[in-house]
Amino acid sequence: MPSPLPDPATLDKRKTQARSWFEKLRDDISAAFEAVEDDLPATAPLGGRAPGRFVRTPWTRVGGPDGGGGVMAMMTGRVFEKVGVHCSTVHGEFAPEFRKDIPGAESDPRFWASGISLIAHPQNPHVPAVHMNTRFVTTTRAWFGGGADLTPVLNRRRTQSDPDTIAFHAAMKAACDAHAKVAPYDKFKAWCDEYFFLKHRNEPRGIGGIFYDYLDTGDWEAEFAFTQAVGRAFLKIYPELMRKNFTTPWNDTEREEQLVRRGRYVEFNLLYDRGTIFGLRTGGNVESILSSMPPVVKWP
Fold this sequence. Notes:
Helix content: 40-55%
Largest sheet: 7 strands, antiparallel
Distance between the termini: 48 Å
Structural class: alpha+beta
Number of strands: 9
């Protein structure tokens, strides 16, 4: 059964806590990614280039400043071919055709949503692409959602026995296990495998991770702590995987393989991704929403 909303003062406090956390996590991840750019040795592929830095662009939700907005943060560098780390806090009313898809919106279309969303497309094909987002949403209900998933772009690395895969799954499992009361790992891992699946190709997008939505157990503090743990786990594991792989040389065949696999990313995000659909239907910033698209892609 869904939990009733708390009193307005408590709900406002929770909104502030969630938004502050997402923005802090954005700052911490941005700093960590810039440090990865700095740490690429000069002798590594593209090591002679200048390290990248994030450029932040504020935006206002369609409909005016009363609907909220966010900040788009983008970087192109010598390790990251394209990475976006975005935060937004928006509110308003769901369009009539969208209300039936959102818990609590059929009886009252008003909503508030805050979250962080990132996607990274590295230069080096040996470094896996990654996606992570977490959010807090309120209608006549309130819940957390999000997760993180890894996409190696080389065929030989897209296996459950690959060391990067094992390390990433272990990080996500640890985040769940520390909050097992509200975060059953097996369920969230299976949900991720099901969600990030290209039905039209009958293949997974990557090697998975965790995914959860409509997390509303009645213990807001535990749910918030778990959502924070997902962010911290990602902040630790992904820079580690980048540093492990970013000095490995690559060839034209591996670059071609990377570009073809990126095409799968585009297909998923345009056909199935809830975040893309939610953002476009709620007056989000189009450039921010579509920044998940890789900079260079091939469909041979």
